[in-house]
Each structure stands twice: as structure tokens, then as C-alpha cells.
Input
Amino acid sequence: MPKRKLSRRRFLVTVAASTLAMPHVRGAFAAGRLTMGFWDHWVPGANSATTALVNEWAEKEKVEVSIDYIPSQGNKLLITITAEAQAGSGHDILAFPSWQPADHANRLEPMDDVMAQLIKENGAVNPTVEYLAKPTGKWLAVPATVGSQIKGPCSRIDLMKQHAGIDVQALYPAGAPPEADSWTLDALLKAAEACHKAGFAFGIGLGSTADSVDTAGAIFQSFGAALVDAKGDITVKTDPVRQALEYYVRLARFFPPDAPAWDDSSNNKWLVSGRGALIMNPPSAWAVAKRDAPQVAERCWTHGMPAGPKGRYAPFVPYFWGTWNFSKNKPAAKSLLVHLSQRSSAEKMVAASGGYDLPSFAKFTDFTTWAEEGPPKGTLYHYPNPYQHQILSMAASPAPPKIAVQIYVQGIMTKMTVRHMQGEPMEKTLAWAESEIEGFMRT
Amino acid sequence: MVDAALQSPSIAGSGRRRFALRAAMRRKSTIAFLMTLPLILLIALLVLYPAIYSIRLATLNKSMERFVGFGNFLFLFKRETFWMVVQQSCIFAITAVIFKALIGFVVAHFVHNIPARGQRKWRGMLLVPWVIPPAMSCLAWLWLFDPSYSAFNWILDLFNIGPVPWTGEAYWARFSVILVNIWIGAPFFMIMYLAALKSVPEQLYEAAEIDGANWWQRLWYVTLPMMRNIMAITALFSLIVTFANFDIVRILTAGGPIDKTHVFATWAFRVGIEGGDIPLGASVSLFMVPILTVAAIFILRDINRRASEMS
Output
């Protein structure tokens, strides 16, 4: 029998064939590596729930994971997003604040498949999530439980009862639907005046940081006032805008005199120090009070927004998780995002954040954390909008997100309020706003 | 023999090259260049590359897909807020530099007149504001100016004065950010002026005294002319740094209230990073370059003229 010589070609063919025929061997990290940059939570210990969930998934899927928690202080997260977008390299999964998915639409991996599955399992998401993460008809990111929040009122039960004659617990009873028909913008105005007179002014800022802008946005929307409509046309000089501005200036006269200089920590400090009867914030201020001023915390009640002529609008500020289109492990990223968006995962995150985090899916508003947290028990019951009696909205919507983000970060609505409050005639303020917004129309 | 004859020109050539290399290496300028090369490379990487990159960014449209040339600058020229930022940056930088120079000059004289034994202690203490990282000292100032819990207002309240809206009212907010800039920057002027004062030959003062010059004349005719170059360079350096300031305004007021304290850097950040319009943000920050170039040309020309007059 002639001896066959092993040629180079035959060697390569044999090796390739044997490799293909080999049974699938799973190593410790057989499915590769996944890096993620999550928002660094304010609430101590809240990150640990996310870490545990990621590790649990990594163990099951045999993926090597690496998590960076990136703070939003000093715009660190925003700068990271911008740098990674510019560099075309970075984390496989990244947390995106509200406006960022639309801002990086052409660099994000579509999430239509993930969202179709999640909506089927977890219920619909509110229109604000769709407005922010699906501006071009395809899902750019997945709404994140961590960091998402409603910035509704957090009132002092005693001060509101004593000075404004309003029983916020009766309006929003724990474990029951709201009975808040009388809770309107007029009632808010009267309460603001009464509490101001009593020396406990409402702690609402008029600066250009998010908390101030979100409140102004919700008030404007309650009047049906939009500075730019959904088509991108400027609608500043319209009656709803005039009415909203007039109302908000009347209300703002009862804010602390330094409200135009407030940042996002000012309202927290205002509540914790016991100087104010109401602030507009997620429960983080209450959580700080629980630690630093328990006698204040036990008198706080988080509840819904007052209704305006065009509806009851609440500022909703969602966070998102997205994947760059240059990510090296997109299937694993999507698999992890599905895992993090399961009911059990969301429940753990909400519990770890003491009720601060808010999932965006309709079926996720009944977690026990919100019912149980206290003192006083039930203070967070209405925080996730369980009866959907509020319209969750984003300031500056329905303007196309690329225009709206400019209106939002420049705080056009709060600046309009301050200008008009300081004596600038209404039409001049509107002309100023119109001119500013014209500058945001660049493409 | 033939081989040797053939090899000799190449050997001679390489020998010449080696000799030339050795001679070059012995030259001071070559050694100086090689020693500064790491720094040059570092500057090219950290300064030149970002500068060129930002110029490129400034020529793109908002979505960074299209070249628009000077379009972003032309757009800025039509914006009312941009001109307000230009005006505020000039007010901020010029006022701060003038006061830093004045305070630095006066304090440098005081320190110069302290006996040598105790001078070191004072120099060290006076440098503290300049040595502390600005982000940290600004946070302390923020607490002092806090809209609702200002420590200054608490003190003023003891005398039934105030409250002063340190960061809540446009003019007070401008005053506050300039004050902090002066507080941080004045020690730099002080130390530079002190060095200049120490380099003035004592004989000049003695000669002036013999000529009957009084304190003012000694200052005007001896000290100031001898310090002019240092003063000009310090002012130029400080002007550049103050124009490009970011941290003080960002921490104390974030540009508010109603944009009345924005300077170029904070406005560029607001527009570029927070607003997602990176090309426009790059254009705002690049707008500083021509202003500072003009200032630098005037100041450096003056220094050169004086140097040539002296030589």
C-alpha cells in the first residue's frame, strides 16, 4: 500500500474538518466579553442590585463581564457618551440619559427585536419613552429601570394641612386610587401663596438645571403650551404659551427669592432643612431626609401633579440602556438587556433604590416596595403613577427631540419665566424665546 | 589593492557621516532639542491634535456629516446670546486681570518689605488660594454664596444687612464669579511681581534716593520700568487663562441666572456637550483664539520693543 504523503493543503483541510466536527466545548467565558457603563446611583447600595443581576446572567451565559459605574455629577456620563461616540469605541452597553438616544440615533444598534419582546411580556411603555427612544420609527434603546423617575410633588403633610388646608394623604390615599379632582393648578397657586405667607415657600427652582426645567415643562404642558410643535414649527407666540407663562410667573412669585439661582440640589436641601412645604422631586430628597432629618421625612408625602386646563401632566425623566452599532458583542448585549428588563430584575432594582427607580413598562407599577416604604408608610404608593391618572411627559416635547433637547438644556421656559417676572413685557419675552429657538433649528 | 581602492570612498563617507553626527550631538542646540523632544511630542499629542481636531469640528454641520466652512461662525454672529457671552467674557477677563494685577502689586510690595526671616511664611500663606485645586476652593465659595444658606448672608444678617443674592441676581452673580477669580489668581501675580521686585538692583534705589527721589518717584521711575516686562507677561498669561476659565463659573453659577455669567468655555460646554451641538460648541471655544492672539501680539510686541531699546 503506497504511503500517502501529508501535504500542507491536506493538513489544513484535516484540521478544519476536525475542528468543525468537535463537540461544542463551553469554557468559562465561551460567549465572549461584555463591557458596560451604567449610571452610578445616588442611593448607596443601589448599584449592588444591578451588579448581582449582571453577574447572575454572566454566570448562566458564560460571558466575561466588566461594569463601570459612571456618575452623572459633573456631566461625567454625558462626556463619556460623547467621547465614545466620537471615538467609535467604548462600552458594549451604556446608560443614556433621556435625550441621548435621539442625539446618537445613527450610532446606536436598533433594539426593535428586544423591545417587541419586552412590550409583549411587560406591557406597553408610555408615549414619552417612545418619543425619546423611537424618534425615527425604530427603537434606539431600551428604557432602563435604574435612574428613571417621575419628578412630582413631595409635600409636607403637616404644613400643607395647616397653612393651605390641603390634606395630601386624602387626595392620594395609600393603597387606593387618587381622589384628586380638587388638586388643580389653581389649588396649587393658592397653596403656594398661603405657605409663602406662613414662611414655608414651595421649593421650586427657576434655574436651567433639570429639576427646574422639568417642573416648568409640566406646567406649560398642563396649559397645552408648546414652544415648538411636533412638526418642528415654532409656536411660541400662541395663547396657550401666554397663559402658561402668565400662570407660572404668578406662581413663581411665591418661590424663594433666590429660585433663579437654584440647581438640582437646592430643592432637596430646602425640603430636608424643613423650610419648605412642597418640592418637585423623585423620592431622593425624602430618602436623604429619612437619613438626616427623620422628623421631616415622616411628614412627607409623594403624590401626583395638579391638573391644568389641558390635563394633569407629570414630569417623567427616563434613562435608557443602549448599545453602540460598533459594539463587538451585540447579541450578548441584547440578551443582558432582556434579562435586566424582566419583572424580577426590575423589582430588585426598585427595592435596592428604596423606590427611587421607576420601570417604564405598564405592568411594573405595583411592586411592594412603593406600598411598603416609609415612614410614613405608603408615602411612595402613588409615586409610580399606579392608576395612570397623570400624563407622563418630558419638558419641551412634542418638539422633535433634536430641537427639544436644546430648549431643555438651555432652560428656555424657566428663563422666560424669570425674564417676565423681572419686569420684561410678555411680548418681548416671547420674541426673545422665539429668536433663541430659531437658533436651535440647525441641522 | 583594488578592493581597498573601491571600498575607501564608502568608508570615508560613513566616517564623515559619523563625524557629522558626533558633531551635531555635541552642539548645544541638538542636545536641547532632544531633551525637549518628549515635551514637544506631549504637547503635539495633548494640545496640537485637539486644537486641529476642534478646528475640523468647527467646520462641520450639527450632525457632523457635512462640511460647512465658516458656516458655524456666521451662524454665531447672528445670535444675540453669543454676543452677550462675548461681552461677558471680556468683562470677566479684563476686570479680573486688572484687579489681580493691582492686588498682586500691592501685596508683593508688602511682602517685599517684610524682614527676610518672616517673609517665607507669608509667601507660603499668600500662595494658598492659588495652590488649592480651583474645583475644591470653588465648592467652598459656593457654600459661602449658596442661594439659600449663604454663610456671608448669615454674617450680614447679624448686622441686619441683606440677604444679598450672591448668585441669584445678574450683577451680584457677575461680581461673585469675578471675586473668586481674583481670589484664586492674585497670588500668581503677587509671586511674579515679588520675583521682579527682588531682581531690581538695590543700587538704583540708592542712586534715586541720593537724587532726592521720594517714595512715589522711586516707584514710578525705578520700580515700574524695571518690572514692566514681567508685568506684561504676567498679564498676558493671566488674560489667556482667565478668558478660558471654566471651573469657577461652572461651579458657582453654571452661567446663570438667565445666562448672565456665561463665558466662552461654559457656553461652549452648554451648547456642545449638553445641547449635543458639538460643532457649534467647538466654534464658540475657538472664537477665543483671535481675541487672545490680538492681545498676545500687542503685549509681546511691546516687550520686544523694550528689549531692543534696552540692548
Summary: Chain A has a mean pLDDT of 91. The radius of gyration of chain A is 25 Å. Strands of chain A lie at 33-39, 64-70, 93-96, 142-150, 153-156, 278-280, 300-302, 313-322, 391-393. Chain A touches chain B at residues 75, 78-79, 82, 86, 99, 103, 106, 206-209, 256-263, 266, 269-270, 273, 275, 402, 405-406, 409-410, 415, 418-419, 432, 435-436, 439, 442-443 (CB under 8 Å).
